[in-house]
Structures are given as C-alpha cells and as structure tokens.
Amino acid sequence: MARKTHPLLYRDEKYGFTLTFPRWWKPYTVIKKQKYDKDTEYELHFRFKYKGKIYDDIFALLVYKMTRKEWIKQGYEDSPLSFLAESDSHVFAYITPEELPEAFVDPKSGDYNYKKYGNAIRLLKRMVNQEVPRIVKTLHFSNTANTIRSVPLRSKKVWPLGC
Q1: Is the pLDDT of residue 162 over 80?
Q2: What is the pTM of this model?
Q3: Please, is 121 exposed, middle or buried when counting C-beta atoms within 10 Å of its C-beta (0-12, 13-18, 19+)?
C-alpha cells in the first residue's frame, strides 16, 4: 500500500490567506518576502532550490492595493500576471517565469545545458507548468472580515405591547 503524504500549508498572517503545496516541494522551495515591483504592496516569492543552490522564482504571489475594477482599468488584465482574488480592497495575483533560469545556460553554446541541469530543468518545468496552477487554486482567505456587532437597545422602561 502506498504511503499517504499530507500536503504542506503555507499560512500568511498579514493578509489572512493560506496556500496548499504538495509535500514533495519542501526540499525544492525557499520562500522570500521581498518587493521588486514599486506598484505592489506585498510580494511572496517561491524560489527554486536544487542541490543547495537557490535559483529564480517558481512563482510569485503579488498583492496590489486596489480593487478588481482598478486592476482592469490599469491594464493588468493584459499583462503576464494572473488574477487570483480580490479581498479587502486588495488584488491577489501570481506570475510564473517565462524562461528557465539563466544559470542553466551553457556560456559556450548559449543553449540550456541539459547534460548538467537536466534533472533540475525537468523538475522546475513540472513545478511551474503542472503544480503551480493547482496550488494557486487552493488560495483560501480566513474569515477576517470586520463586522459590526449588534447590541440590543436597553431601556429602563419596557412598555407592554398594546399601550
């Protein structure tokens, strides 16, 4: 019987969301919180790690302080970013790399060095092309909505019905 593995849960306390990852990602992923884009409020980069070396992003989750309507108006719908959700006047989006890391290129030939990096390339392609679309679908927001609590009216005099 195959051993059942439990997924990994990433919890972001700042924005109140979770993402679920396959457990096998653990040795190949490093999380880095760093802003690269001046328009984002928050960025979460899931970096590829292989044989102790950290390469480029597998994907990045980006948070913008705007509504979905503003997102569309500013032209983000036609960008490489993919819209994920809108929560509390913030847009959550993600982006995957369009190319393999430059570190995988053989400087002599200018082509990817499949002999040296073949396993890493196959693994990274699987993560980006097959797993990331599944992972981003697991984005879940906790119930952190601010609500006004109802307080009953308290009166010193209670009038009987029909008076």
Answers
A1: no
A2: 0.82
A3: middle
